[in-house]
Amino acid sequence: MSGNHQWILRLWRLVALGLAAWLLHSAAQKNEAPSRTSSISLDRARSFFPQATRVTASEQEKGGDGVFDQGGHLIGYLVETSPESDAIIGYAGPNNVLAALDPKGGIVGAELLSSGDTATHVAAIKKEDSFWKQFIGWAPAHQPMPKIEGVAGSTLTSLGIAEAVQKRLAGHVESLRFPEPVTLAEVHALFPSAETFQMEEGRPGWHAVKDNAGKQLGFAVRTSPFSDATHGHSGPTESLVAVTTDGKTVLGVRIRRSYDTDDYVDSVREDPDYLRQLTNFTVEQWAKMDFKKAGLEGVSGATETSFAVADSIHRRFAADAESQSKSVSTSKSLFKPRDWALLAILAGSLVMTFSSLRGHRRVRLAWQAILIGVFGLFLGDLLSVALFTGWSRNGLAWKIAPSLVLLAATALLVPWAFRRQLYCHELCPHGAAQEWLGRFRKLHVSLPKSVTKYLVLLPGVLLVAAFFLALMRPHVDLAALEPFDAWALRGAVVVSTVIALVGLVASLFVPMAYCRFGCPTGALLKFVRTTGSNDRFGLRDGIALSLIIAGSLSVFWPTRGGSMKVSENTTELHGTAFGTTWTVKIRNHATTTGELKQTLQAELERIESTLSHWRTNSATSRFNAANTTQPIEMPEELVTLVARTLEMSRASHGAFDITVGPLVQAWGFGPGRARTHAPEASEVARLRLSTGWEKLSADINTHTLQKSHPDLKIDLGAILQGYAADRLATLLNANKYDDYLIDVGGEFLARGNWKVAVENPAHPQDPLRVLQLRDAALATSGTYRANHTDGKKHWSHLINPHTGEPVEHETILVSVVHPSCASADAWATTLLVLGGERAEALANANSLSILM
């Protein structure tokens, strides 16, 4: 074969690899929207803040969700790291972390919401409590990140999670307490000639101010997010600081917004002498400020507030100085100790590949011992199909593992350019272990050629299967096809461990058994390898071409019915209600969304303000406050809904009961102060006297509700979100929409054909079941998240009306499909209260479609 033809063939194989990676990336992008859609529920907020009664989503792109207690006081924030962290790749993919922060910006907890990384690595990290505890206490706004120790065997994924948190909370993060952008009017107060201002790239919070001729006048600098951690008399205060063009001199200070007492803030704002006093110091002096030595005097009568203003300026410029001092060292810290160790292994493999040392028995044995001990058991970052697939989908992990990227590139290019199989022969510890075991020649057996000719095809078949699984089933864990995770996770992954052990044992009898007859990664490296002047376009190239054509058709072939991801002709609306979020997706409608969103949001607000017992002025709350057994006239909507719940109570023999609210509150859930201990039996018995659906009646003719016990109260929470979804559907139908998906706090209602997922309690990042929902509703109730503990016992938020105590059985999740979302919502709660065989029997009796 001529030299030109050889190079054409070589280039084709590189192009084929590139096209395969591009197809995997395109498939991941095609399915990206559903995986990135998330809502922070009140139940999830309570896992960090037990006293939470409301979660309010921020309209700011980078803002966190505020968490509030019964009194309306801000008690913390919930912040997702995605999409800011999406570019950070761990071992094979990005991570979305939920961080909980106290009002001062300190982390009180974190959990992994979803991950594109290898499932086995993720599972190992999720159950490692000591890893997550390392984040607690860190205040990203004004503290350097603590040293985070990774989880053994999952180091790269651990580092990816840590960097996601750091990127989101410490790098270019905007204030959660003061999300409002700076306005030109505010800048005018400091620079009267200002016409424009623009955020400085790489200097968050610094705005370059210019006049109408484009001349720079100076900088307007926000003290947030450092203001968040500095409380005066009763809260933090944010200021805007004017700084000269050289960034060295403070020209003026203007108070922007404050959570402090208004009178104190006004006293500081209206004291020109104090504000002028703040300009007596340079930026450098502010960064090193010692208030006692500086003799800075506060405002009489508002001392704490005035010093909070000064302290936030100090923190602002101190953080800037620290950031500048770290910028040089950070640029030099790309390679970490483990990277140098891996580079040393790579250098050794190159020596063994291109020198005569590989022929020396003792040298080779010593090198293989290093591979097994250092690369395999210590580093554990072996190449795999799962790794290459993850990088194709999400991008290379340059920042987390530059040495691993270099190793992978070398493993692909050396056989492509020099015909020598560097990775399989001189790097892979699993191969080295097989070679050791293969030295027991007396155990060897010869396989029949008729068997061998089929076995040698198995690695290629597995590679083809892995490629199509990656395209069509993105949630399948490809690491389970190979033994390499067993090296990293020390046997914590059953499937990989079994494959590893079987392959090693087999190599005692058939030399290099796994490498020859089972390794898809080896098949990938073999594909790119050239074989010299006799190399031809052969079977492997034909299969590769067929795979690329078939893969392109599966990814880009147009589909009917719109049951895939949200497409360009799908309108998506979203907002907040009931302490959670709502989303409406409308397919095949070009529409102006502003007015429709306002209509839907207004309807949800009307329902919540009328029917939710969390609203103190709602009709429900007014009924609860009325201590009388006389009929009480109530809005028709409330009476009708209560009558509907009473029918549910009859059908379920009291398992569904909207009067258990006081018991729910007694166990630490619902409005009011959260409890840290279980109620006494006597308290439960006393409250049960005023609960029970039989003590409530509804007359839809006279629009009245009546109690037979004056202290009876109602809680519509088990049906209200589903009812709200039904109401939104009514509005959409009236506006001629016929293909939409409604999601109110996780309760779904579909018109048309839509895919929805049920969360897996054991692995929330993966769906338990993906359902095709057509013209129906899906509601889910679960006890695996919302619970309290007194240090000895955990209990669920779901109360059994018959005992007055939290439910105790093995059923932790029930999903119900029903034409009505309100009914699905109520039935899901009812069946979860019953659990087990009782729930199944009731579902069968009412012809319900359930997942339990």
Task: Estimate the global geometry from the Cα principal axes.
Answer: globular
Total DSSP E strands: 26
The biggest sheet, with number of strands, parallel, antiparallel or mixed sense and barrel status, is: 7 strands, antiparallel
Which class best fits the helix and strand makeup?
alpha+beta
Gyration radius, rounded: 32 Å
Helix fraction, binned, reads 40-55%
Terminus-to-terminus distance: 63 Å
Low-confidence stretches: 32-39, 58-62, 328-332, 559-568, 788-792
State mean pLDDT (0 to 100 scale). Answer: 82
Strands ordered across the widest β-sheet: 11-12-16-17-20-25-26
In terms of DSSP E residues, the strand content is 15-25%
Count of DSSP H/I helices: 33
Description:
With 852 residues, the protein is an alpha+beta fold. The strands form 7 sheets. A 7-stranded antiparallel sheet has the order 11-12-16-17-20-25-26. A 5-stranded antiparallel sheet has the order 1-2-3-4-5, with helices on both faces. A 5-stranded antiparallel sheet has the order 6-7-8-9-10, with helices on both faces. Helix 14 (361-379) packs across helix 18, helix 18 (429-437) packs parallel to helix 22 and helix 20 (458-472) crosses helix 24. The protein is globular. It starts with a helix and ends with a strand.
Task: Give short descriptive properties of this protein.
single chain; 852 residues; alpha+beta; 7-stranded antiparallel β-sheet; 5-stranded antiparallel β-sheet; 33 helices; globular
